[in-house]
Amino acid sequence: MLGIDSGGSFLKFGVYREGKRHLDHLNLFPLPNTKEFLTFLFEGHSSILMTGAGADSITNLLSKENIDKIEFLPEFLATGLGGAYLAGADQCIVVNIGSGTPILYVDREEKKVKHLGGTGLGSASLAGLSHYLTGTSDLEEIGNEALKGNPSKVNLLISDIYSKPDEIGIPGYITASNFGKYQNWRHTNAENKPSKVDFLAGLHSMVGETIAMVSTLASRQYKDINPELPIIITGGGTLNPALINYLEFTYKYLNQKYIIPQNAVFATLHGVFLVKDLFSN
């Protein structure tokens, strides 16, 4: 049985054999896929499970024979159950960083996944804004380059606006305004202006801090049910080292428990098989 997670930026696929989940995978960026590749992928499979925002674009490239093989499954259900499964969590918040970032409450025992909201910031935001800022949109490149930059060159920090930040109960190193130092850029020597890697660092900090803050607030809605409710990070964003750096930094500041499971990028793909197993009867 073939499983496919067709997202807005990547396609992931895996094959279920002999009761075990063996994931053969190929990341494609950017989409769309080619008709020849999809025909090759479908060859030899009589049953195909599919989910993801890109499912419609895939079916437009397939023959009727191949379309008839497909069973479509709800994406949020697959993402939530897949993320919880990979993390070994019974109850959790799953944050799936794809093109954008949905936030899901998951109760595996109840087979329940609830979409709590999310943010439009995600990997596509990083690629798009980086393109406009630096002319580069390759996610692997910008993620590595951002690690070399200093986000405080572009972000306005609490310590920049409060001489005694402890008096307001917020550490001075916390961001007060993403890209808020633009006034400084206009009134400084050229050599002191932010570099390309500083802009990339600032961009990744903005996306990482926002996702961490929004998901932490979501998890606190359930503190009466489970005060130790973990946040599970999944999706293609887990492959970006700079994004993960700022996510982890913010979660630690907020004292929020989080888990980035192994193979987190394939959480939704694992989930399509789980959904099929759980709801087939």
Basic shape: flat
What is the element string, with H for helices and E for strands? Answer: EEEHEHHEHEEEHHEHEHHEHEH
CATH top level assignment of the largest domain: Alpha Beta
DSSP E strands, number: 12
CA(first)-CA(last) distance? 17 Å
Mean pLDDT over all positions: 89
Number of helices: 11
What is CATH's topology name of the largest domain? Nucleotidyltransferase, domain 5
Please name the fourth-level CATH homologous superfamily of the largest domain: ATPase, nucleotide binding domain
- Outline the biggest β-sheet: 5 strands, mixed
CATH architecture of the largest domain: 2-Layer Sandwich
Strand content: 15-25%
| Uncertain spans | none
What's the short version?
By secondary structure, this protein is of the alpha/beta class. The chain has helices spanning 35-42, 55-59, 64-67, 75-87, 123-134, 139-146, 158-161, 182-186, 196-219, 241-253, 267-279, and strands spanning 2-6, 11-17, 20-22, 48-51, 70-72, 91-96, 101-107, 112-119, 156-157, 175-177, 231-234, 258-259.
